[in-house]
Amino acid sequence: MTDNITKILEKKEFTRSDLVILLNENSPDGIEKIRSKAYSIMKENIGEEVFLRGLIEFSNVCHNDCYYCGIRKSNKNIKRYTLEDKEIIESALWCAEQGYGSLVLQSGERQDKAFIDLVVNLVKKIKKETRSDKLPDGLGITLCVGEQSKDIYKQFFDAGAHRYLLRIETSNPELYKNLHPDLQSFHNRVKCLDYLKEVGFQVGTGVMIGLPHQTTEDLADDILFFKNYDIDMIGMGPFIVHKDTPLNYLFDVYLKKKRYIYELSLKMIAITRIFLKDVNIASTTALQAMYPMGREAGLMFGANVIMPLLTPNKVRKEYQLYDGKPCIDEFSNDCFDCIQLRIESTGRSVAFNVYGDSKHFTHK
Ligand code: SAH
Fold it and tell me: For the whole model, what pTM was predicted?
């Protein structure tokens, strides 16, 4: 039955319909073939080391109103926060001491001057204060603070950030439109990727998997989009329903399709790895939110980046993009202790004190 899969996996280049066939493969044998091919492509092109980026969700204030997201501006059931510089720097120093090498600063979207200044100053401070013998230029900084103008992106880059994540959420403009208010345009989101590239960032994007009305053809187009846009880093994960969003009526459907969406997400990682080869691919927290060992599974399917959560415990529960986010109770220390063990349990090792840049970018 899976002979066809073997044949496709032996090809040098995939067509769109090859991608769709791979995404539609649901037999355990076929999925294992895809996984194992992805793993060997990863090994050949970028090795087996896993890079860490400490994730600090420094503010949940957001001016956007995405229909799927728990921190959308219309959600009145969360307390809005912005961490103090001091708290963020403390987490950054902790991150550097652990040897993580890089940090992701993520927040809701704001374009006002106070926010831009806050980000620019934070980046400068973190770069300066985390310098050490092991990291002479300080931590590597990835920003994930949404759509901005080209000039603002340049200010962020000049301050010292060198990677940027901006998910397009889906490459299908129709689907995008159904998930966002009219003010938020797909066209602008994609234009921002151009700006980021022009400014000199290593650019990351990604999509959600299992969105309402999304087909495997759409997902194949997502992978083609990553290729055509020459993307350096990918962060994808399952769409998970949040109770305080307009999509909460999908909860029963989500429960029924959970296993399918989880497996589809792992296949997306593997097929993206096979198709794009040398990019960085994150195994995202949303996978872990679905199933406790989801991030480890992502690594087995060809991901090479993990983003341990460093957000201070007291605000973690206010930054729930989706329901079931792991490690949000007061006493859990997520990743502080267990991340290295979790990664090593998959037979991989962690690369400490390196930026872990995308080989796809450094090869350019
Ligand atoms: N506002 C910033 C970053 C915060 S949101 C930005 O847009 O860049 C980070 C990502 O979380 C989003 O891009 C989206 O893909 C994901 N996300 C939001 N709600 C989600 C949900 N309900 N299920 C799964 N992922 C979600």
Answer: 0.97
Q: How would you label 213-249 residue by residue, b for 16+ Cβ within 10 Å and e otherwise? A: ebebebbbbbbbbbeebebbbbbbbbbbbbebbebee
| Domains along the sequence of the chain with CATH | 2-362 (3.20.20.70)
Residues 321/242, Cβ–Cβ less than 8 Å: yes
Nearest residue (by CA) to ligand 1, atom 12, is 167
Mutating to test ligand 1, I would choose from 208, 242, 258 the residue with most ligand atoms within 8 A of its C-beta, which is 208
Summarised one tens digit per residue, pLDDT across range 129-171 is 999 999 999 999 999 999 999 999 999 999 999 999 999 999 9
Strand ranges for the chain from DSSP E = 51-59, 101-107, 140-144, 163-165, 202-205, 208-209, 233-238, 280-283, 305-306
Contact (Cβ atoms closer than 8 angstroms) between residue 123 and residue 73: no
Q: Which atom of ligand 1 is found nearest the CA of 69?
A: 19
